[in-house]
């Protein structure tokens, strides 16, 4: 079991004062939701009652009829011999809860009763299970929702056994704006390229740490991509109109498969004509929202202007789509992509690869993603807030210039404080422009 930052979030929930809500952990498949929740529960509760609704279909019967807490506890005790339901010392874990809409509805009576803590986990929450008419509805006001993401680069370093002293040293170099020693810098660039290829899905990271074999990693990633495509198909049972579902399924697949090609363009804005000759936004909005809700992709919106708060300048219908997990993105590029990244022969997709990993990193920090593009050709890869300052982020696959950032920094109409250039270069400062190696994106909090 790898060390995960989200365990601290779980602890904060458990220690919260007042009437406790249920903890609902959302996120894409294969990111370690179940293992993290189980580890947390075993470390913090005397009794753990675990129900997986995918593996135990019969458990759904517990939540049929009136959701009376005493009756549900009795039924769970009968169904799970050996479990102990001790009030105020027991946590109920409803895993894959999207498979049982009424189990999520039971959160309200459990919270009102107060004797048992409840944790729900699942993928496709909000897509599968809760919109069915037979369900009793989502318990508004009784859930503390946490969005879990794949492992970030720091967690990847922990998994590789890189010590906290090394990470603290890197953080010190970032804060003092001093270069990293050449040996450590070279090692970190290598680790970062490994992370780009492996990604942050714990099972894939485990296979990489255990074998060091990128061919094994690539095969496992391709298998997971097929599982995701199966999930697209499972959406077919959500509505009564099969023809509508088949159309939506086709559009979800088109959007998903188009992401590498969309990002390979010089202007990486998502264009519907790449999906079909007369593709229109209204045809694909539901498909894109499905992928966003599933956690598989991240959306980066264009800004009409650069000024805080950034959300106020977002253009909803002009955006880029990035893959949430960089490893899966690399797997979508086909065989040989991993070797080219590790050897530095990035070729056609080099800009897309490094933009995607930074979008991935920022998303794991909980950031909304924005960029800035004008028809004149001026484009900033990302615009975000760093330490309370409005910051431009330029991502360079090679050393690269920052012509667009220079233009924005000189123009007083843009309310910009600083520019960070992320590349292979070591730490450096020139006025309001700060050069950082890619791996220091994890410190841009």
Tell me about this structure:
With 445 residues, the chain is α/β, with parallel strands linked by helices. Helices cover 42% and strands 18% of the residues. It has 16 helices and 14 strands. The chain has helices spanning 6-14, 33-44, 69-79, 101-105, 107-113, 153-160, 164-176, 182-198, 202-211, 214-234, 242-264, 281-294, 326-332, 337-343, 350-364, 403-410; strands at 22-26, 47-52, 90-95, 117-122, 143-147, 297-303, 314-323, 369-373, 379-380, 382-386, 389-395, 418-423, 428-430, 433-437. A five-stranded parallel beta sheet has the order 2-3-4-1-5. The protein has a five-stranded mixed beta sheet with strand order 10-11-12-14-13. Strands 7-6-8-9 form a four-stranded mixed beta sheet. Strand 11 (389-395), helix 16 (403-410) and strand 12 (418-423) form a beta-alpha-beta unit. Helix 8 packs across helix 13 (326-332), helix 8 packs antiparallel against helix 14 (337-343) and helix 10 (214-234) crosses helix 13 (326-332).
């Amino acid at each position: 079991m790898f060390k995960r930052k989200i365990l601290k979030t779980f602890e904060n929930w458990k220690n919260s004062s007042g009437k406790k809500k249920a903890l609902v952990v959302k996120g894409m498949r294969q990111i370690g939701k179940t293992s993290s929740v189980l580890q947390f529960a075993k470390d913090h509760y005397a009794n753990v009652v675990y129900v997986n609704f995918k593996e135990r279909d019969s458990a759904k019967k517990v939540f049929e009829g009136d959701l009376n807490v005493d009756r549900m506890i009795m039924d769970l005790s009968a169904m799970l011999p050996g479990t102990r339901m001790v009030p105020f010392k027991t946590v109920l874990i409803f895993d894959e809860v999207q498979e049982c809409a009424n189990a999520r509805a039971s959160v309200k009576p459990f919270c009102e009763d107060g004797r048992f803590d409840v944790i729900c986990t699942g993928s496709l929450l909000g897509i599968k299970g809760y919109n069915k008419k037979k369900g009793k509805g989502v318990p508004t006001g009784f859930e503390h929702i946490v969005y879990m993401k794949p492992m970030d680069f720091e967690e990847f370093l922990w998994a590789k056994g890189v010590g906290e002293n090394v990470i603290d040293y890197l953080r010190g170099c970032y804060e003092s704006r001093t270069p990293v020693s050449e040996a450590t810098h070279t090692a970190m660039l290598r680790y970062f390229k490994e992370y780009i290829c492996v990604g942050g899905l714990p099972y894939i990271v485990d296979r990489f740490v255990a074998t060091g074999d990128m061919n094994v990693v690539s095969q496992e990633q391709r298998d997971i991509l097929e599982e995701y495509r199966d999930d697209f198909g499972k959406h077919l049972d959500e509505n009564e109109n099969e023809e509508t579902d088949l159309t939506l399924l086709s559009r979800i697949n088109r959007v998903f498969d188009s992401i590498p090609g969309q990002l390979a363009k010089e202007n990486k804005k998502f264009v519907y004509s790449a999906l079909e000759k007369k593709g229109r936004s209204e045809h694909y909005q539901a498909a894109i929202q499905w992928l966003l809700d599933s956690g598989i992709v991240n959306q980066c919106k264009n800004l009409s202007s650069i000024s805080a708060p950034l959300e106020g300048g977002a253009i909803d219908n002009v955006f880029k789509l990035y893959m949430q997990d960089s490893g899966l993105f690399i797997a979508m590029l086909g065989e040989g992509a991993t070797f080219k990244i590790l050897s530095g022969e990035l070729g056609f997709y080099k800009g897309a690869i490094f933009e995607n990993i930074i979008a991935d990193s920022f998303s794991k920090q909980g950031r909304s993603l924005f960029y800035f593009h004008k028809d004149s050709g001026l484009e900033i890869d990302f615009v975000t807030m760093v330490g309370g300052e409005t910051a431009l982020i330029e991502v360079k696959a090679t050393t690269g210039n920052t012509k667009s950032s220079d233009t924005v920094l000189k123009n007083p109409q843009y309310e910009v404080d600083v520019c960070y250039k992320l590349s292979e270069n070591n730490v450096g400062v020139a006025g309001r422009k700060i050069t950082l190696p890619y791996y220091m994106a994890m410190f841009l909090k």
